[in-house]
Amino acid sequence: MPIENPFQDPLRFERRVPECAIAIFGAHGDLTSRKLMPALYRLAYDRRLSAGFAVIGISRTAMSDDQFREKMQESVKQFSEDTTFDADVWKAFASGLFYVAGDIGDAALYRNIGAKLAEVEQARHTGGNVLFYLSTQPSQYAAASQGLGAAGLGKGNGWRRLVVEKPFGHDLASARELSSRLHEVFQESDVYRIDHYLGKETVQNILAFRFGNGIFEPLWNRRYVNHVQITGAESIGVEGRGAYYQETGALADMIQNHLLQVMATIAMEPSASFHANSVRDERSKLLRSIHAMTPDEIRQNAVPGQYGPAKIGGEDVPGFRQEKGVDPQSQANTYAAVAFSVENWRWAGVPFYLRTGKRLPKRVTEIAIQFNPAPLAIFEDEDGPGSAPNLLIVRIQPEEGISLKFLSKRPGEGMTLRPVSMDFNYGSSFGERSPSAYETLLLDAVIGDPTLYTRQDMVEASWAVVEPIQNVWRETKFDFPNYAAGTWGPAAADEMLARRGHVWRKP
Ligand SMILES: NC(=O)c1ccc[n+]([C@@H]2O[C@H](COP(=O)([O-])OP(=O)(O)OC[C@H]3O[C@@H](n4cnc5c(N)ncnc54)[C@H](OP(=O)(O)O)[C@@H]3O)[C@@H](O)[C@H]2O)c1
């Protein structure tokens, strides 16, 4: 078996973690406070980081190293869900935190970063290894990378890698353009495009479930699978990010990246090994097999939505157009549902329904694989034939697990059937905490394992199927709002499935 990466253990644990500095652009921002710093602290708490480890925070706001440490301590205390804050661990961790202030457009910033890196390398023995993390406005990604390149920081005496937050481009051309700008400084193998869904335990478990067991794979095809539903539902609204959402929309914010990556994981062919490029080759191949629809097909197979005001639990909830920073005539989608088809031998004719939305009744991310019914209904089904199909449900959040739904005989006389469920729950089965997606992904990037990161061809393949939908929606005037806050989305999305004899699940 070829060894692509000497640090990579096929079982993905107990891997050697090299010493390094992580330089975070956007260290004064929301993502650093809520996700990145709690994840890094938790890795330190679990003794997963090497002793030669440092974090350099970068953003415009002036702060001293100590002020940065104080702010990060507050964030870790506030946003670490299940960590008991340990003062000794924090003290050791905080001694490795540093801060550099400056503007991404200013060459002086990179000179200061270079000086800080040299200082940290001396003091903390980071070995010249640097992971740059771009957690700033997407419009700044290329500029930051170019600034690093111009200052000679893209290369050094250790390795240099670049993690890029989402969104990666706003259409196919901009994603290509961004990749080529980054490639002027970092080669593709050193560019880590983050899709935090791929870091979630349950999404990784899809691979274990499918390819570590012999019993499911024979059913995993058009002969047995009727259709697949992938839902990423949020119960909250845009939470002060109205202006961002107005620009981006649910289709680009969720389907283009997270849900299509989940679909690729569910539908990809088995990879020959668990090496980064083997897995990514299969994901990429699947994404490239998704049919890019014509405008006529899009009108039949894609439905946008936008929530209107409603009363939920006795409380008035504003519609999207009433949110702060949103145009009262906005045509932005806060809901999107698409029926994709995969043009390969395994999946021809099996619809993959993807939907996402804000202000739906519940926060839930799940994949439901519906199997074909038994060829002949010889028993009485409590709610009529076909009312309770065989379903395999992979729950990604909030609780993580897998359920298989099937029919069983109701106790007592007669042969009446009732749906029952066989359940696996991650928490109770393993009795231990799952690492957060950011813990997994940060550690992978430090180790140099890009399996769970998105490659250029994957990003481009997903834009290639999403962009035509975006174009049709941009040219169409929709009668928004078309669903009330707190409901499961527009009627047109139900009709889209009804035309094929299917119904959306209400998880
Ligand atoms: N927040 C999330 O939940 C989330 C989820 C997924 C992805 N993301 C992505 O992560 C990235 C960061 O999001 P965020 O919510 O943390 O954004 P944010 O709160 O607006 O923070 C942006 C950060 O970038 C810095 N910055 C902006 N312009 C700069 C410039 N010209 N020079 C230097 N620093 C500059 C800001 O510094 P100052 O504050 O000092 O001005 C701030 O630290 C975005 O790409 C976003 O799409 C965020």
How would you describe this structure to a colleague?
By secondary structure, the protein is an alpha/beta fold. The chain has 2 domains: 20-165, NAD(P)-binding Rossmann-like Domain (Rossmann fold), CATH 3.40.50; 198-397 and 455-498, 2-Layer Sandwich (Dihydrodipicolinate Reductase, domain 2), CATH 3.30.360.10. 36% of the residues lie in helices and 20% in strands. The protein has helices spanning 30-45, 65-79, 87-94, 107-124, 141-150, 172-183, 201-211, 242-267, 276-289, 295-301, 426-430, 437-447, 456-475, 491-498, and strands at residues 20-25, 53-59, 97-101, 130-134, 160-164, 191-193, 225-233, 302-305, 307-308, 310-312, 315-317, 335-340, 352-357, 364-371, 380-381, 391-397, 401-409, 416-425, 483-484. It has a 9-stranded mixed beta sheet, sandwiched between helices. The chain has a 6-stranded parallel beta sheet with strand order 3-2-1-4-5-6, with helices on both faces. Helix 1 (30-45) packs across helix 12, helix 6 runs antiparallel to helix 13 (456-475) and helix 9 (276-289) packs parallel to helix 13. The longest helix has 26 residues, at 242-267. The model is unreliable at 1-13 (pLDDT under 50). The protein binds NADP nicotinamide-adenine-dinucleotide phosphate. NADP nicotinamide-adenine-dinucleotide phosphate binds next to helix 1. Residues 26-31, 59-61, 103-105, 135-138, 140, 165-166 line the site of NADP nicotinamide-adenine-dinucleotide phosphate.
